[in-house]
Amino acid sequence: MISEREAAKYPFLRDAVSLVDVLDITLDDLVDPSYRKVLDRAEGRVSQAILKGETDSRLEDPPTELLSYPVANMFVTVLGEDFLSRRYALSEALRAEEILREEGEARVAKMARTEFEWTLNLVSESLDGRIYNFELHFSNYLRNAAVFREPKWKLVNRMMKDGYVLLTQPEATRLLKEEIQRKILSFVSVPAKINLPEPLRERTNRLAKVLSENRASITGEDLPSEVVMEALPPCISTAFEGLVSGKRLGHMERFALTSFLINAGMEIDDIVKVFVSVTDFDEEFTRYQIEHIAGLRGSRTRYTPPTCSTLRTHGVCVNPDRICGRIKHPLSYYRRKIWMLQRQEEERQGDVNPQISE
């Protein structure tokens, strides 16, 4: 059976969840003053996810650390924000990855095999000056490495032996983080209506306020004024918000977002900063890709975003509004929305007769 301290380190594990389930703690129990530390830590976990994008680990009090995790999950579920769910899952996964870096190879291998059913073996291979501690079946490797953009993660660039990919320990924990993130996201992204006692509802209300007050800075709505963030088309806004909250964007989403921001006037340095929240962020590689799309490298062709019909074909067109029905290109949406926002501001100031506004 898993120890309490081990469960506190990795509360998403099946044995850790079972350990909490045995306690059979109810919502009414949580209102009791004896659980105040648990509630404070649970609220803190979600708040850290919002403000910092990573949860710290406090293993000096394993019971509080363990019990606060499912409570934090509940808070995120009740708030029901996709953006928050993704950001929280990433935050907790980064916390687990940091702890795993300090673990022995056997512990990493055990989690990979028992929790995520990896076909993985411990090895000791020294090739080209690198020491490989694990060999992972290529199917497990591709499931997790496919989302990484750095060339070194491409299968053709990996050391392989009989269908197994050789990994260092940092690489193995990096891949495990992807599994952990998906697992936690599956816990918190399922809609649920929970009738919380008032003291717990007060905490979710505070968290909702923290999210609301900081969302602009998190999602980049305070980026340079040259780009009017309020005028972004729904498809671009969704891709933008998903990226900064840790979502893995598909190729078409990344291309559409990058080419849009370039043509909307955002500086290259600021676009690079948008991608910082991607966990496999490589500034040199990211900058090269952006500059290529901007026509500063390669063929020197400056790309424009795909048309709306192309975005629909690739499943990138999401949440279309009434403006979308009148235009055929994201940049046309952007120009029209800016015009509408300007007219609304002029009307507000009394410079234009409201009767002739759209």
Structure description:
The chain has helices at 4-9, 14-23, 27-30, 36-51, 62-79, 82-100, 105-116, 138-145, 169-188, 198-219, 234-244, 251-263, 268-274, 283-293, 308-313, 330-348; strands at residues 120-127, 130-137, 160-161, 164-167. With 358 residues, it is α+β, with helices and mostly antiparallel strands. Strands 1-2-4-3 form a four-stranded antiparallel beta sheet. A hairpin with a 2-residue loop joins strand 1 and strand 2. Mean pLDDT is 89; it is low at 354-358.
Q: List the strand order in the largest sheet.
A: 1-2-4-3
| Count of alpha and pi helical runs | 16
| Range of strand content | 5-15%
Provide the number of structural domains: 3
Which H/E pattern describes the elements?
HHHHHHHEEHEEHHHHHHHH
Outline: flat
Low-confidence runs of at least 5 consecutive residues: 354-358
The end-to-end distance, rounded to whole angstroms, is: 66 Å
Number of strands: 4
